[in-house]
Specification:
By secondary structure, the protein is α+β, with helices and mostly antiparallel strands. It has helices at 15-25, 93-104, and strands at 3-11, 29-35, 55-62, 65-71, 84-90, 108-114, 122-126, 132-137. The chain has an 8-stranded mixed sheet, covered by helices on one side.
């Protein structure tokens, strides 16, 4: 089983600028970048046209580690203090469920742990201390 903790920076519409800034400042390489407009459409959450160019997910390689980014999802609040989350990345769906269930005790589920187009088990939870964790299970490739 692999397990990694990855800082995840949630930006307020300026993720592209932040990616360029940190790329240059930290001599980092962009491994992946996708806009909300490049994601498969979800009729339950229609995407406003002004949000299509915002970053839905990006990964920078900084030395031996990664730094992830996104812009706040359209319609979600952004406030100082919640723009950094910790992404727990694993290749074991059973462990993902274990971590998610443990972290939600006394906390709040932001996104239920579920299969998505990019992960067999992805969810977000804010623990009882106010720290937000994204649980990401590797193993399913994105089909875009």
């Amino acid at each position: 089983m692999t397990l990694r903790l990855i800082p995840y920076l949630v930006m307020n519409g300026n993720a592209k600028e932040a990616i360029q800034f940190y790329g240059k400042a930290l001599d980092a390489q962009v491994l992946f970048s996708q806009s909300f407009g490049e994601m498969p459409e979800n009729p339950e959450f229609p995407l406003p046209s002004e949000a299509k160019d915002l970053v839905s997910h990006a990964t920078l390689k900084v030395g031996e580690t990664e730094l992830m980014f996104s812009d706040t999802f359209p319609g979600q609040p952004h406030q100082s203090g919640n723009q950094v989350t910790i992404c727990i990345s694993t290749d074991d769906a059973e462990k993902a469920h274990k971590f998610f269930d443990a972290l939600k005790e006394g906390g709040k589920v932001d996104i239920p742990l579920q299969e998505t187009f990019f992960s067999p088990a992805y969810g977000s939870v804010t623990d009882k201390f106010g720290i937000t964790f994204q649980i990401f299970t590797e193993g399913q490739q994105m089909n875009l």
